[in-house]
Design a protein that fits this description.
The chain has two helices and nine strands. The chain is mostly beta strands and 115 residues long. The protein is globular. The model has no long low-confidence stretch (mean pLDDT 95).
Length: 115
Amino acid sequence: MMAQAKDITDFDTFAALDIRVGTVVEVQEFPRARNPSYKVAVDLGALGVRWSSAQVTNYTPEDLLGTQVCCVVNFAPRNIAGFRSEVLILGAPGEGCKVIVVTPRSTVENGAALF
């Protein structure tokens, strides 16, 4: 069965998303989250350090530290179990229920925008 694409949209809708690269600088356990998650701090360069509630527990905190990740930085913050999640770390489904974090192929400057 072929997967269905989402509805067609225009480029301006995509361009409205602010997707940046940042480096994971801190990872904390998040036992209050409904789904297994970490609290992840991402250094986004001139945008500062921002936090995310991320369902990426198939990685160890040590594996995530220092990793560059791609994040949507202009969504409104969300309250996740009393925690303010400020950015959305992008990922794709992997085998089983793993989330594969989207990372740049080469190191780039923190805060670099995707286009």
